Amino acid sequence: MNNSTIDLLCRHRSIRAYLSTALSDEQIDCIFKAAQAASSSSFLQCSTIIRITDQDKRQQLAHDAGEQSYVMSAPEFWVFCADFNRHHQIDSSVNLGKAEQLLLGCIDTAIMAQNAVVAAESLGLGCVYIGGVRNHIDHVTTLLKLPRYVLPLFGLCIGYPDQNPDPKPRLPRSLIFFDNEYQMMDKTILSQYDQQMSQYYSERPTNQKPGGWSDKIPTTINKEQRDFMLSYLHKQGWITK
Ligand SMILES: Cc1cc2nc3c(=O)[nH]c(=O)nc-3n(C[C@H](O)[C@H](O)[C@H](O)COP(=O)(O)O)c2cc1C
């Protein structure tokens, strides 16, 4: 079964090269409204978007994110934050700092951001999330003047694509979609996927690399450890109890 929404979702690919064409106010409004229409746990509305229009701040964020050039060149760059500061402003006696609130803030904010991505893609735009803003999260917090109980989760580049990459093959359904109970992984199916990814990585026009998917797991996980995160979270008022 297919329809235009499902087609759009299945055509998704991250865009890392943009035309300089600015988005109209109407487009920005439309993407924002779609983002805000997302579900919200207990209707707490615990997310905030910071649109970066200041070029110097954009440059610093691009640097913080590991010199990802598209952070600078994308017409729009939005930082998505989990945010319980608003609730603290409403009533400073509310019991913040619970692990559950961290989960809730991350879940709601990611759902909201994905609505923005889908809306943008439906307008012919492209996007890429930038988790790299967490590489120097202290600096990002100072730069964006984030108070306690606000947690910058990721950035989002939005703009007209100046590239047309193919969608990336995903894990086979049988490895991630189970009936009734968890299933340990079938290694034969994994190795078939690795072959498919190996072909994809060697044939794509940019950033070609050897190997499949699973051989990259240790390096990828180890490189993204950000060991400072727990103390940052505590300092910012998250998971203190
Ligand atoms: C929360 C999050 C953070 C990400 N951070 C980055 C990033 O910092 N830089 C980047 O180039 N891509 C980033 N990505 C994009 C992923 O690399 C990309 O979604 C993945 O490789 C799958 O490719 P696709 O989006 O083209 O299907 C991020 C994706 C997510 C969901």
TrEMBL record:
Residues 12-160 form the Nitroreductase domain. InterPro entries: Flavin_OxRdtase_Frp, Nitroreductase, Nitroreductase-like. Keywords: Flavoprotein, FMN, NADP, Oxidoreductase. Belongs to the flavin oxidoreductase frp family. This is Nitroreductase NfsA. It comes from Orbus sasakiae. The gene is nfsA.
